[in-house]
Each structure stands twice: as structure tokens, then as C-alpha cells.
Amino acid sequence: MKAKIQLLTSVVFSILLTSCGNRETNNQDNTGTHESGLINDFIIMAYSGPPLEEVTLERYQEVADAGIEYLVPGNGSFNLEQNLKAMDLAQQVGIRIIPVEMRLLPFDWNQDVSIDTAVIKQIARDYKDHPAFGGYFVKDEPDISMYPALKQVADIFHSVDPKNESLNCLFPNYGTLTQFGVEDYGEYITSFIDIVKPGLLAYDSYVLKHDTTLYDDWYSNLSLVRKETQKAGIPYLVFIQSHGVEEGLRLPDRAEILWQANTVLSYGARGVGWLSYWTPEAGLGVPHAEGVPPLIEHYYNGPIDIDGKRTETYDFVREANLYLKRAGKGLLGWDNTDVARYENGKMVGEGSSPVVSPDGEEADIIIGTYRKEGKTRLVISNAGCDKPTSFALHYASGYEPMEVFASIEADPTGQNESLLRWTVRAGGSVIIELKEDQ
């Protein structure tokens, strides 16, 4: 399902990265080759900023206060003048902008349009030196036939601006053959990596449906993308939901907001993107290709509603973002070496947890193992978003818990409240640092 928006929302998400350009291999070390934080930082992003009449310093301070560090404005801001105004304000409040550019739009909506090298180079010149510039948008949810063109556009951007990257945001695994352009989703992902050679891979996943939560799709998507990006030596991020869509997606509550952010962290993602920040009006966006009927979706109760008022969701997203600033950024430079999912105390599917194993029939958790320079941290998240989970932890020989690096909605329980037994409420997570016997 394309739960995002085929309006400008789609256009937006691809914008966020920094240019991979002329990389010869995927496995090279990207650190130091790009100045943009999109490659080297933990990314906290949101789509859909204040509409044109609300593009003010006060409103942009409100964005920053929500813990958002990268904003894709959209929502009426589509040309150079509008985007530069947003960047000037963003610079004052300490965030970055990934602009939606109408000059790239013909490429976005029609895969047969010729690529105008001069236009793409001019876009790079217009934005690349602004201190609040965050990256280039190319394409949201492309099918596999567009991959060679995406690589060509990224290379043109890179020829003018080697510091910043073009981003393409891929479909989730519950899409269709028509959307992928290929039968196998794994091939859809690996072909993108092989052909486009991105510096960062992003994909959408909106699994909080009105009547169900697509747990299997959520976790299998994370597992596959994690595996393939690790092979390629690149980070990945996931766009997750922060508003409702009538007759499609339910409005996430606090636990569901935290669950999305924390399980993504357990699986080693390098960031999140929220859809959306300011709730867009239905149908607000860019013209659709001739002969293609528009996809109109009706959104409600994002962090800022259509009328510009804060909702409960603003507080939930802000809380998650502030936690990620501590937890996600605290794992930069650490390798996510293993991950395992447990249901009722038993491991589900492929995975591994070599340092610790859970015990207890209520153990519905994800254990992500991170390592750095002989140190180990465990990111243990509730695998569900609707109930608490309790469990004991058994550490492998040579390891013992040293301290809690970060936690939210998680408490040690049992005798002396040691770090051996835990209750993690719905959406919660705890990061435990271990001591290794030398």
C-alpha cells in the first residue's frame, strides 16, 4: 500500500541525503568523504512543514523544539524563493532543510522525460552553499526501471556538489509488483543498492492500519534492509507514521510512536523520518502526470493539525525525538552486529543474540547487539505496541551488566532491582552497557 501521499509528500522524502555520486563500490568507508550530517549523523527528520502563510521564525522554532533536525517543508514551499526563506529561518533555529524543487518535478512524475543536466546543476548551485541546506530530493518510491536514471541524476548533483547527496525513498515490502517493477522485494532493494550506489538507503513503512498492526511486514522489512545495507556498508533510515489517514492508517498513540522509533533502533537504523509534522490538506501538492488520476488521501491529527494547533501527537513525537537524540546518537560509531526477535520467550525467524538470552513466557522483545572497541551495548525494545513485557536476562560467560545507558518506559524489577530482570512497557526500550572480563 502506498500509505504515504502521492502528492508532494512523495516527492519530498527522497530529498534527504547526500550524494553518492561516483562511488565505485558500495563497501567503501564513507566517513570523512561527506560533510553532510545525513551520512555521518543519526537523522531525525519530518516531512511537511508550516504552510506558506505560517513560515515564520516562531513556527520554525516550534519545529526545532519538537526535536526535529531535518525538515522537508513541502506544504506549499516548492520554488527557490520559498525554499531559501525556509532555510534562512532554519539556520536561526539550528535545523536543516531538504527542499522540494519544482524544477525537478518533470523527472519525478514521468520516467520517460529527458534529464536536463543544466537544470540539475543549477539546482545544486542555488542551494549547496546555504548553511541550513540538508540535501537533494530525487524520487519517492521509484520502481526498478528508474534506477539507472536515479544514478545519473545523483552523479550530476555530485559533480557540482560532492558534499551533499540525493535521496530516493523506496517502497515497503507490502507494496505490489506494479509498484516495485519486479516480483521479488529483495531484488528491488539489492538492485537499488547495486545500480544507484546510494550513500544512505531510506524506505517507507506505515504498518499501523485502522484494524491491525502489520508486525510481520514491519520486522521482515527491517531485517532485509538491515542485512543488505550492512553488506553494502551504508546506513539506512525508515519513514514512520505520525498522523492518521482516513480509511487507511490509524492515528498512533504514545506507545505506538515510541514502538516505531525504538524497534527501528534495535535493528540498527541510522534515523527516522516522521510522516508528517504539519498535517497537510487532502490533495495539496503538485500536478500529477497527464492521464494519471490523482491519489487523494485525507490526513488528520499530525503533530500540528491542519489549523496550526499542536496535538497530543506533537508531545509524543517530541518525546521520542528527545530520546533518540540520547539513544540513537549515543550509538553512532557502534556496529549493530546482531539482532533477534522473541515472542513468548522464543526466538522468531532468523536472528542472533550471542551475549544475552531472555527467559519468561512474556518475553516479547527485540534485542539488538551493538559493539565498539571491545565494548557492548544491548538495545532491548518491546516487540509490541499494545502491552508490557517482563523477562529475565541471562548473560553469556564473560559478560555482566554495568549500567543503563538510556531507557524509556522500562524498569528493572526483582530482587534489589538489579539489571537482570526487566519490565518494559508498550513502546518502551532500554540500552544496557556491558562489562567484559578481560
Task: Describe the secondary-structure layout.
Layout lengths: L7 H6 L23 H4 L2 E5 L9 H9 L4 E3 L7 H14 L2 E2 L7 H5 L7 H11 L8 E5 L6 H14 L5 E5 L6 H4 L4 H12 L4 E4 L10 H18 L3 E6 L2 E2 L8 H13 L4 E5 L23 E2 L11 H16 L7 E9 L2 E2 L8 E4 L5 E8 L2 E8 L6 E7 L3 E14 L8 E16 L2
Parallel strand pairs: 1-2, 1-9, 2-3, 4-5, 5-6, 6-7, 7-9
Antiparallel strand pairs: 8-10, 11-12, 11-14, 13-16, 14-15, 15-18, 16-18, 17-18
The number of helical elements comes to: 12
**Can you summarize the main beta sheet?**
8 strands, parallel
Secondary-structure element order, N to C: HHEHEHEHHEHEHHEHEEHEEHEEEEEEEE
Tally of strands:
18
The structural domain count equals: 2
For CATH, the homologous superfamily of the largest domain is named as: Glycosidases
Class from helix and strand fractions:
alpha/beta
Q: What is the mean pLDDT? A: 88
User: Termini separation (Å)?
Assistant: 51 Å
What is the CATH architecture assignment of the largest domain? Alpha-Beta Barrel
- The rough form would be described as globular
Structural features, described:
This protein has 438 residues and is α/β, with parallel strands linked by helices. It folds into 2 domains: 8-331, TIM Barrel, CATH 3.20.20.80; 335-436, Immunoglobulin-like (Sandwich), CATH 2.60.40.1180. The chain has 12 helices and 18 strands. It has helices at residues 8-13, 37-40, 57-65, 80-93, 105-109, 117-127, 147-160, 177-180, 185-196, 215-232, 254-266, 312-327, and strands spanning 43-47, 70-72, 96-97, 136-140, 166-170, 201-204, 236-241, 244-245, 271-275, 299-300, 335-343, 346-347, 356-359, 365-372, 375-382, 389-395, 399-412, 421-436. It is globular, with a radius of gyration of 21 Å. Mean pLDDT is 88; it is low at 1-34.
